[in-house]
Amino acid sequence: MGGVTSSIAAKFAFFPPTPPSYEVIADDSCGRRLYIPEIPLRVDVDILKLRTRCGNEIVAVYIKHSKANGTILYSHGKAAD
User: Fold this and answer.
1) Long-range contacts: 51-57, Cβ < 8 Å, 24+?
2) Domains of the chain: total
3) Following CA atoms 48, 16, 23, 28 in sequence, which dihedral angle do they give, to the nearest 10 degrees?
4) Is 68 within a domain?
5) Which residues of the chain have pLDDT under 50?
6) Which domain of life is it from (predicted)?
7) Handedness of CA 39, 68, 31, 16 (dihedral sign)
8) Cα 72 to Cα 17: distance, rounded to the nearest angstrom
9) Is 52 inside any structural domain?
10) For residue 79, is it within any domain?
11) Residue 50 belongs to a domain
12) Which residues contact residue 43 at a Cβ distance below 8 angstroms, ignoring those fewer than 6 apart?
């Protein structure tokens, strides 16, 4: 029964705010690189749009560091922007 409950809960758990509190724009001068106008452009930061198995599109920020020896994955709470 737990699997059924969690799959039903998952369908109701993703409620992104409407409208979003930020905009993602493709920069045509940089090969359509994505950016968020409120965040300064940096060569070590990539903005990505990812499609989930359920068809939702989520925005991710990848911050590169040349000496990194691990990865931190952070996901904020539901309906937070």
Assistant:
1) 54/11, 54/14, 56/14
2) 1
3) 40
4) no
5) none
6) Eukaryota
7) negative
8) 25
9) yes
10) no
11) yes
12) none
